[in-house]
Fold:
Amino acid sequence: MAAQPLGTGVSSSRRRGASAAVTLLLLPALLTCGVRCAVPRAKPSNIVLIVTDDQDVVLGGLVSGQKKGERYQFTVTPLCCPSRSSILTGQYPHNHGVRNNSLSGNCSSPQWQKGPESQAFPVFLSKLEYQTFFAGKYLNQYGQKDAGHVGHIPPGWDHWHALVGNSQYYNYSLSVNGKEEKHGDNYGDDYLTDLITNRSLTFLDNRSPQLPFFLLLSPPAPHAPWTAAPQHQKDYADIKAPRDGSFDKPGKDKHWLLRQPANPMTASSLTYLDNAYRKRWQTLASVDDMVEKLVEKLKSIDELNNTYIFYTSDNGYHTGQFSLPIDKRQLYEFDIRVPLLVRGPGIAPNQTVEAPVLNIDLAPTILDICGFNVSLANVDGQSFLSQMAPSLRNGTARPFFLVEHTGEGHLTSDPSCPSLGPGLSQCFPDCVCEDAYNNTYACVRTLDSSQNLQYCEFADSESFVEMYDLKSDPHQLENIVKKVDPSVLQVMNQRLIKLQSCQGQSCRVFVVLLPFVKDRRNTVKNLLTIILHGKKLKWNV
Ligand SMILES: [Ca+2]
Structure:
């Protein structure tokens, strides 16, 4: 995801699912702390990070009818466990090593626990004497037998209420500070979104007022199985998935996985995705309740004005785009763009930051707020505190970045879709597959005031390439790879190669080869442009 401060892109909302975000935006961001809040000797600011599961922003998953402004907030990988691992470490997947949601794909694996998890940003918050609290979905394989069972508490956490496995609303187990706690299907006792809310409020009541706190709240909404709270089960009865943009458009010039769905979609697929779309909003209504209660609690304990609240999601989602019924894992805007709203000291209300922000930027931003020297952290991302609160920090946005995904498939054919061969997965409904082994891709995105280009290479037998100019084609309807000047493809390819192997500082230092630029003497030269934190230096080569 990337970040923009939050605000103005929000139009008036007609659904409660939007009110969580709107609540954050409309509350005045007070300036009383000023710079003091970002340095360690004053009482540091508190931080709350809310990470929903699969909440899109492009299709109205944050607010309905987004008509104002563009917001660029990206995950560097559009899948739960790799994205969450990036949020925790501030690293691209090729550096933290989490490829997918399985243990063999490194999700919450012993290797992850020994390595990247031991350096995740909560570890540093704990060393800075933050009181740390976690509740909700952590990583998809968390708590499983081969992932250390419920006894594994990642370092840095003082209060730990983590879901075992993937998102559920009822009938799940938690690790509560290392001990298993089983839950059934009683709304008042077990509904997970509300449980997360209630336990966070209790934590705030019992905290030590002398020390700052950090809360990471990770509700299951709006992930499947889309079980709404009883009071929200009839909400949004007339809502259907939006039919504009790339909805049910054929992916005729795209990777083969985009060419296999039936087009137009079947009636059963349409019914399925409309139902999913509506139920997703219903589950988000309980997240609205969470935000409202949390803000009220922070007010009542006189901490709101010294607390940063971040609201985001691990990945986006699609419902019918390019005739794919429901899922994520694709390189397109609907899957890689996520909500990001922030309020807190030094952030003016109702502003939108146009520069792109990534989910790997959350860790360095939070550490920056806490007064930690971010240059000492082993992160690929960069703080965007300067983007949100220029009065507190100087800094520049990055001109381009990486998105990468490792595709998954089953070894054998799906028994419910016998006509399909092995190597595919997520083949529902109607045997339309959303992932495959060779849905493995890496993209470079160039995004600034002059360009909005996306260039993607697939690791498949075709070495398939997709390229989009999102300034003229915001819905990515036309793959322009066969139209564009080869020199542009070359530049994008070189950027991609560098980013795919970048680590730490090299992910933030950009070398751009601009071939055959004519100087004033009308001779042809290559210009090597190095952009280092926004400072452009040029050499003739
Ligand atoms: Ca997710």
About this structure: The longest helix spans residues 267-300. The CA atoms of residues 128 and 528 lie 42 Å apart.
